[in-house]
Design a protein that fits this description.
282 residues; binds pantoate; 9 strands; 38% helix; alpha/beta; three-stranded antiparallel sheet
Length: 282
């Protein structure tokens, strides 16, 4: 496995790969790699592509400084992780390499970026789509892999690629969970023991909503209530949003007729967790 820190090195390394007609895959990460990232890389490895993993903690997408600063990564450990999962090249640029001066250009996906997490994290998705656009220009991948845990991010990136005619296939990768259901996230390691113990309730609440929908409940308010009933009695969990949305447009749904996503964000102590599940009317 090779390791590059500069954009020039990545371009120089990928030019012959492209000339040989080999496809290129990209798994974009912010490091602190765990089994959820492992699933992205393993899914990408199923293709014959040359696989690039990027590791870059994208400062502008953190609206809170403490969250950014808590995002500590161990590059040596992450490189070992990528090697073990069979990546071909790791691109781990510095902040200076990605943002040598104040960035005047940005990419924004209107509408899709505004609800759910977008309501509580102003500017977050613009920073995500901007850095992903930069990575797409640097790597020019044929396929790029994003986890379903960040459903809104996945849909926003899908829409960016379609609207800007990017010849890249956006491949969704299912959420990886702990045995008790908690979705893997780099933020889980910040949970104190008693917070970790209650954190899986978020997934259980989403499942309760989903079960309500698959049992024939067509009212989103009722489905939401089925989930919120589990969370409300737990003082260590503060729900930021719990919504039933159209799986593609992310618009809130009132009457459920097609496939929807039940998505939630909640604070468990000082840690913000997000999760979502697919739900279908019977
Ligand atoms: O999902 C993430 O880890 C980040 O949002 C991404 C896509 C790497 C952009 O910084």
């Amino acid at each position: 496995m090779e390791h590059a820190g500069s954009i020039a090195e990545v371009r120089a390394r990928l030019a012959p790969v492209r000339r040989e007609g080999r496809g290129i895959g990209l798994a974009a990460t912010m490091g602190a790699l765990h089994a959820g990232h492992g699933a992205l890389i393993d899914r990408a490895r199923r293709e014959p592509d040359f696989l690039v993993v990027s590791i870059f903690v994208n400062g502008p997408q953190f609206e809170r400084r403490d969250d950014y600063e808590a995002y500590a990564i161990d590059l040596a450990q992450d490189l070992e992780f990528c090697r073990a999962h069979g990546a071909d090249l790791v691109f781990a640029p510095s902040l200076q390499e990605m943002y040598p001066r104040e960035q005047a250009a940005s990419v924004e996906v209107a509408g899709l970026s505004e609800g759910l997490c977008g309501r509580f994290r102003p500017g977050h998705f613009r920073a995500v789509t901007t850095v992903v656009a930069k990575l797409f220009h640097i790597v020019q991948p044929d396929r790029a892999y994003f986890g379903e845990k960040d459903w809104q991010q996945l849909e926003v990136i899908r829409r960016m690629a379609v609207d800007l005619n990017w010849p890249v296939e956006i491949v969704p990768v299912p959420t990886v969970r702990e045995p008790d259901g908690l979705a893997l996230s780099s933020r889980n390691r910040r949970l104190k023991a008693e917070e970790r113990a209650v954190a899986p309730l978020l997934y259980r609440a989403l499942q309760a909503s989903r079960d309500c929908i698959s049992a024939g409940c067509v009212s989103a308010a009722e489905a939401k209530e089925a989930g919120m009933r589990l969370l409300a009695p737990e003082p260590r969990i503060r729900v930021e949003y719990f919504e039933v949305v159209d799986a593609e447009t992310l618009a809130p749904v009132e009457r459920i007729s097609g496939p929807v996503r039940v998505a939630a964000a909640a604070w468990v102590g000082g840690t913000r967790l997000i999760d979502n599940v697919e739900a279908k009317a019977p």
